[in-house]
Structures are given as C-alpha cells and as structure tokens.
Automatic annotation (TrEMBL):
Organism (species): Streptomyces gottesmaniae
Protein name (record): DUF6924 domain-containing protein
InterPro entries, alphabetized: DUF6924
Domain of life: Bacteria
All residue ranges annotated as the DUF6924 domain in the record: 10-137
Length: 140
C-alpha cells in the first residue's frame, strides 16, 4: 500500500509513535503555529507505528511511479518527547534514506521549498549541524 499523497503542496507528516496522543496534538499545534499557511498533511494510521526508514523506502519502491512521494516527515518518539518537536525528514527520491532532524520552527520554510521544488532535500541535509539537525542556513 503506497504512502498517502497530499492533495496540495503540503508535506506529509507521518505519525510513527502512538504512545501519547497529547504529544501528537502538541506536535500538530506547534507545526500549525509555525507558519502563516498550512504546510502539513497529517497522517495518523496505526499501520505506520514504529515504521522505519527502510520500510518506507521499500513501500515507495513498490508504488506506481505516479503514486510516489519524494520526501516525508516522521513524527517519531524523538519528535514527541524532545523540546522543539524535531521531525525526522526522510528523502524518498534523490538519495533514498537520507535523513535530517527538523525542529518545528523550521518546518514551514523547509516544507514550502521542498513542495515547490525550489530547493532540494540535499541542500537542507547538507546544512544540518553535527547532530544531524537543520537549524537554518549560516549567514556567515
């Protein structure tokens, strides 16, 4: 079964941790408040509980080309528990399996640029810090 496809230019935020519904609500609230316009299509389906990056890549590989998505943001256990609710961004197209963390405050910028193909996944991943977290582009 292919991953759900957003009907618009929003990015797919896939819940993979189902241990705390309140944390999921908080993640969605923070993401929605981070930008002026909606940037996320939220999917909370138990079939994605604890799904890993490889399983997502396999699912996309098996999907028809027209049904594939190029990136996804996972709301995993780290997202639910850490301050800033850092999502796990996953490339499913150019460098399948490449990831970086993304605090909620940066989600609107990254989502918008990826959704309209203004920037590539690698540009954000390459700008991630030593912990693998994107915290904006250096101005220096």
């Amino acid at each position: 079964m292919p991953l759900p496809q957003p009907d618009d230019l929003t990015s797919l935020v896939l819940r993979t941790d189902f241990g705390d519904d309140g944390a999921w609500d908080a993640v969605r609230t923070v993401l929605d408040a981070a930008g002026e316009y909606p940037h996320a299509t939220y999917v909370s389906e138990l079939r994605f509980a604890d799904v890993g990056v490889q399983a997502l890549m396999d699912e996309e590989d098996a999907a028809d080309e027209d049904a594939r998505i190029i990136h996804v943001f996972l709301a995993d256990a780290t997202t639910m528990k850490e301050p800033g609710h850092p999502l796990l961004a996953v490339d499913l197209s150019d460098e399948p399996g490449r990831t970086f963390r993304l605090p909620a405050q940066w989600f609107p910028d990254v989502s918008a640029n990826l959704s309209i193909a203004n920037m590539d996944f690698a540009e954000f991943a390459d700008a991630a810090d030593g912990s693998g977290t994107f915290r904006g582009f250096d101005k220096g």
